[in-house]
Design a protein that fits this description.
alpha/beta, 2 domains
Length: 266
């Protein structure tokens, strides 16, 4: 095995699993959650009570160890994708970071979040989902009327195993077309990942085959700004269709000049 990073226990476990299976030229190979147990035993590492947190943390909170990243072909990077119940695959894919732009103007929206909700929201993700919901940001962003159907929809999709959608909306436009809008929320150290969008789209196809799927990602930014991305799968790759930033403020903090400027935008 190539020289490892000497990082934390999660990184060492992922490195062990990766290099026990990887060979030069290999771009797609699988492993199972129980492989974490054997890797931990060989490395004399104490496993967390929740084995799934090793995979979740590696997929959404941190980058893969440098030793793994260096093996990817030019223009590609490794991701961990679901492959069934408690099964995963290391797959090389096109690098496509979903990161909020720093040059976009934030659109001011009167903050309609109930104070008691803001006070007691449990964690960044729940707070973000609540702010998006109570301020009807999905409606504003997509230009359709939507309704929150369910939080944390857990389902099983063939070939992917069990997955979870942070929140799913259903909606309708002026012509009667209906939509399914899966929303993934990222706060704190969590990062947007293309595999999450692929899972969201797969869940929509299974449960709402007659609806148009419009996946959205939401990200907390500084100064009470929320970044929203509409995403799409194009030739198997996740692409950004639209990105807007919204700043939640007291209603009297939006000036007449700002309101007039919004009227000229499309």
């Amino acid at each position: 095995m190539p020289k490892t990073t000497g990082g934390n226990r999660y990184e060492r476990l992922v490195e062990k699993i990766f290099f026990d299976r990887w060979q030069v030229g290999l771009k797609d190979f699988g492993f199972e959650r129980e492989d974490l147990e054997s890797a931990a035993a060989e490395l004399s590492i104490r496993l967390p009570k929740n084995l799934g947190d090793v995979i979740y943390s590696t997929r959404y909170r941190t980058d893969l160890p440098e030793s793994i990243r260096k093996t990817a072909d030019a223009g590609l990077h490794w991701v961990i994708a679901p492959a069934g119940r408690a099964k995963y695959r290391f797959v090389q894919t096109v690098v496509n970071r979903i990161i909020p732009r720093t040059d976009l103007v934030a659109i001011k929206v009167p903050d309609a979040t109930p104070e008691i909700i803001a006070r007691y929201a449990l964690g960044d993700e729940q707070a973000l989902l609540a702010k998006v919901r109570y301020n009807r940001l999905i409606d504003i962003f997509l230009g359709i009327t939507t309704y929150s159907l369910q939080n944390h929809l857990r389902t099983t999709v063939k070939g992917m195993g069990q997955l979870e959608v942070d929140e799913i909306y259903v909606g309708i436009n002026r012509n009667g077309a209906q939509f399914a809008v899966p929303v993934q929320a990222k706060g704190g150290r969590d990062k947007h990942g293309p595999t999450q969008t692929q899972q969201d789209v797969a869940a929509c196809k299974r449960h709402f085959p007659d609806l148009v799927c419009r996946p959205v990602s939401a990200q907390f930014m500084p100064n009470n700004v929320i970044a929203l991305f509409e995403l799409a799968l194009v030739d198997g790759e996740v692409r950004v269709v639209e990105e807007r930033h919204y700043r939640l403020v007291d209603a009297d903090k939006i000036s007449g000049e700002e309101l007039r400027s919004y009227q000229t935008r499309t």
